[in-house]
Amino acid sequence: MEVGEQANLIVSPRFGYGSLGLEPNIPPDSTMHYDVELLEVKYGPSVSELSLNQRINTGNRKKDRGNWWYMRGEYSFAIQCYRRALEYFDDTDLPSLNTEEEVHILLEERLKTYNNLAAAQLKIKAHNAALISLEHVLTCQPSNVKALYRKAKILKEQGELESSVKCIREALSVEPNSQSLLQELSTLLATQKEENSKRRDLYKKMFRNTRDSEKTEGETQDNGNVSNCSFCYSFSS
């Protein structure tokens, strides 16, 4: 569009307010029509040109937008917003003269965003991507309870029960009275016990089948020897 130009925008529910709408004004699955006029064009500064506080403020706006989408169950849109927020929480090429406290705030917001990103990725079953996001958190904060809990969930889904139990135990060392963690640990241990029982039963069955096979083979050989001896005896008489 050129400056001063007018247009009618037709926005499908997928790119608007989705199946939830925005009550009371916008019903579910609404197609939106916007009459717009382009008044002015301004080019914003690149991320590297922003001050640390500007990065934090802009990143938080995008993270909050991601949280809004997440609460609506629109996890793909939430992921896009979280990724965009992370660009502003990057601590490379920071302008000079920043206090340690300001840089720490930037780091904290980045780790929160990675945690939120992992939660959204979990919702769409993007487990490997979620693990990468969680590693960003746990590398800086090994005792981050939310990250440990979410990592345990992924490992459980992937069948790595022992590693999942380890993560929950680490989280409990930080929050020993957390009922959700205690419940998750109890569930994991019960699942682990059941899996071990199934594995033992499988090994017993395999061992029994092996023994039965060897026994059958031995009996076949014995029957063959008796038949040969009977043949020899009959011939000699």
From TrEMBL:
It catalyses: [protein]-peptidylproline (omega=180) = [protein]-peptidylproline (omega=0). The keyword Isomerase applies. The keyword Repeat applies. This is peptidylprolyl isomerase. It is an enzyme of class 5 (isomerase). Residues 1-42 form the PPIase FKBP-type domain. Keywords: Isomerase, Repeat, Rotamase, TPR repeat. It comes from the Eukaryota. It holds the Pfam family FKBP_C. TPR repeats lie at residues 145-178. GO terms for molecular function: peptidyl-prolyl cis-trans isomerase activity. SMART domains: TPR (SM00028). Its EC number is 5.2.1.8. PANTHER family: PEPTIDYLPROLYL ISOMERASE (PTHR46512:SF1).
